[in-house]
Structure to design on (435 residues):
């Protein structure tokens, strides 16, 4: 497993590599459990956390080398604040960077087999990849009619690789869930379902075109067009739509950063509260900006519907936040199927602390990444309430919704964007007095 061959290995090799890492974590957790009776509750938590962090570092390095489902799942989990300890998600966040690419020669057989008429469709295809990700990579090309496009080609054997990775990492989830007495299978099922959907590029193309039509009347949002005649289940061709990256915008002046941040925030709110559908992969690389400020969206493999019962709950949560009414929130969360395992509402103490952390966006103007950093406060609270949060029941639907919200707020912090966020939230909150 050296060089490019370390990126894609057989299902058997992946099984033993991941299985070995999972087994070592299980053994270490068993050892900590044996020692637990002689320790205080605080010491038990510290030792368990240290064990998780140490072995998560090993597993993360392996996920990055293996690509496929393993890396993609690591990326998904890295944005799950509260699902795992902050120290663990910090390690997993390393997987958010672009993956190493493969030479086009490794993809040529698949490309030609999937599109036998490619010579009639394309004038040229660049061999140097434009970007690489966990299950495929992107190359620029030119169609016979002169249009510039990008082609996303899935790595070879990816479906069997993903099946192997899902099997191994489900076992990791079950080991972890067994030690914290929480059934993580529903969460895993949601992650697995989303990942399997991302393997189907024909489905992604339909989702992308649906988003393009949905936002066709919004001049500030642009979705590249899908070239269906040059797309298959493993190849997706879309128009080439370049723009400034989010990291480039983070170096712009304050006014420009504020405008970009406000647009990202408004786009998030419109998806949830107007369209009830989310582009659920807020990786910074999935956004770019035209010179006139238009937001360009990429990668529609992860799309999440917002159920009605959650939509209603989110509206009421916004209103409770604006009215600084923490006492209303446990009941609202219960209607959203979020509560302790015994059915009791979330403790008011926890609610008060989190509402206090996020209060800046419910007040006057606030700059993300400022000295009073609400995300840092949330991370601190996640560390404080980690074990208690593991005993909270919630519907799997919230996983990718919360992932999108958390990722968007993280993007706003990288921009150090400032705005009157309350004004943007106000039109989507439940009417005053509704609880």
């Amino acid at each position: 497993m050296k060089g490019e061959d370390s990126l894609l290995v057989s299902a058997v090799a992946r099984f033993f590599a991941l299985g070995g890492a999972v087994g070592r974590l299980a053994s270490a957790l068993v050892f900590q459990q044996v020692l637990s009776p002689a320790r205080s509750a605080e010491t038990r938590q510290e030792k368990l956390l240290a064990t998780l962090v140490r072995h998560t570092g090993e597993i993360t390095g392996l996920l990055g080398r293996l690509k496929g489902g393993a890396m993609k799942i690591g990326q998904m989990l890295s944005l799950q604040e509260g699902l795992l300890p902050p120290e663990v998600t910090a390690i997993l966040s390393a997987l958010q960077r672009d993956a190493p690419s493969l030479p086009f020669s490794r993809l040529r057989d698949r490309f030609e087999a999937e599109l036998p008429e490619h010579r009639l469709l394309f004038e040229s295809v660049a061999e140097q990849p434009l970007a690489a990700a966990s299950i495929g990579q992107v190359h620029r090309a030119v169609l016979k009619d002169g249009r510039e496009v990008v082609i996303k080609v899935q790595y070879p054997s990816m479906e069997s690789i993903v099946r192997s990775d899902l099997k191994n990492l489900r076992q990791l989830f079950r080991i972890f869930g067994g030690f914290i007495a929480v059934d993580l299978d529903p969460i895993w099922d949601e992650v697995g379902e989303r990942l399997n959907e991302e393997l189907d590029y024909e489905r992604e193309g339909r989702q992308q075109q649906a988003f393009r039509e949905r936002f066709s009347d919004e001049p500030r949002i642009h979705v590249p067009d899908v070239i269906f005649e040059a797309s298959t289940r493993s190849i997706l061709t879309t128009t080439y739509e370049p723009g400034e990256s989010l990291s480039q915008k983070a170096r712009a002046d304050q006014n420009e950063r504020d405008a970009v941040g406000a647009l990202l925030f408004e786009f998030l709110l419109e998806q949830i509260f107007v369209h009830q559908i989310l582009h659920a992969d807020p990786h910074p690389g999935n956004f770019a900006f035209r010179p006139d400020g238009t937001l360009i969206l990429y990668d529609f493999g992860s799309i999440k519907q917002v159920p009605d019962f959650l939509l209603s709950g989110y509206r009421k949560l916004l209103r409770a936040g604006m009215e600084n009414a923490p006492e209303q929130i446990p009941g609202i969360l219960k209607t959203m199927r979020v509560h302790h395992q015994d059915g009791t509402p979330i403790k008011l103490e926890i609610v008060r602390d989190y509402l206090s952390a996020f209060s800046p966006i419910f007040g006057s103007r606030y700059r993300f990444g400022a000295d009073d950093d609400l995300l840092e406060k949330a991370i601190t609270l996640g560390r404080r309430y980690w074990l208690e949060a593991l005993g909270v029941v919630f519907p799997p639907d919230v996983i990718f919704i919360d992932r999108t919200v958390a990722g968007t707020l993280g993007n706003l912090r990288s921009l150090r964007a400032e705005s009157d966020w309350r004004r943007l939230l106000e039109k989507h909150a439940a009417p005053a007095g509704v609880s």
